[in-house]
Design a protein that fits this description.
about 70 residues; alpha+beta; two-stranded antiparallel sheet; 2 helices
Amino acid sequence: MPELPEVETVLRTLESRIASLEITGITVRWPKVIIGDQEEFCSQLMHQHFNGFMRRGKYLLFVMDD
């Protein structure tokens, strides 16, 4: 498990590099982590934008359009 300062560094890096970018393609590498239909999950994320970034402990949270 990463330490909190490492998680914060990743958060700030992602925020500076992908803020407001649109998701144009999705590759699911571990399908077992998706609850429900994989195709529906991917279709709901397509064309969403990264609008905000937060951290809860060691978890990163992304604010999307919907």
